TrEMBL record:
Its cofactor is Mg(2+); Mn(2+). Belongs to the Nudix hydrolase family. This is Nucleoside diphosphate-linked moiety X motif 19, mitochondrial. It comes from the Eukaryota. One of its GO terms (molecular function) is hydrolase activity, acting on acid anhydrides, in phosphorus-containing anhydrides. Signal peptide: none annotated. PANTHER family: ACYL-COENZYME A DIPHOSPHATASE NUDT19, TESTOSTERONE-REGULATED PROTEIN RP2. It comes from Macaca mulatta (Rhesus macaque). InterPro entries: NUDT19. Keywords: Hydrolase, Magnesium, Manganese, Metal-binding.
Length: 135
């Protein structure tokens, strides 16, 4: 289940790359496979969107920015090159309001922050923020 997979990831039994962690957290929105199937049938008519993350290196970590996030830049140069800042991740998070991002603290600790409205009936992952005790 999505909750078991998330727990296995946090307890370091398995490793998930950020995109897979994002998708597992999206699946947590559905109580059953039947609910997911119904959603997929209705969602298929909406079309597709291609998402490419932009990586922002901070003084103490990394943030994957996704379309809709206020720091996401449509400039294709940033899809191939990393953005960077001297600020710490916590500072970056305090400054913003419109989020669609994965904050990477370490190999087994990610936070997902989504405050933007979805387009095309997209279901965003449940926000996933771990406690400071995991840091």
């Amino acid at each position: 289940s999505p909750s078991e997979t998330t727990e296995s990831f946090l307890s370091k039994e398995i490793w998930l790359a950020p995109p897979q962690f994002y998708e597992v957290r999206r699946l947590a929105n559905f109580a059953s496979f039947s609910d997911l199937h119904k959603f997929c049938l209705g969602r298929a008519l909406e079309g597709l969107e291609r998402w490419l993350p932009i990586i922002l290196l901070t003084a103490d970590g990394m943030v994957h920015l996704l379309p809709g996030d206020e720091l996401y830049l449509e400039d294709s140069d940033f899809l191939e090159n990393l953005m960077s800042t001297e600020k710490k991740t916590e500072e970056i998070m305090k400054e913003g309001k419109q989020f669609h991002r994965i904050v990477i603290h370490n190999r087994h600790l990610y936070d997902i922050h989504v405050t933007v409205q979805s387009k095309h009936k997209h279901v965003y992952p449940k926000n996933s923020v771990v406690s400071k005790s995991h840091l």
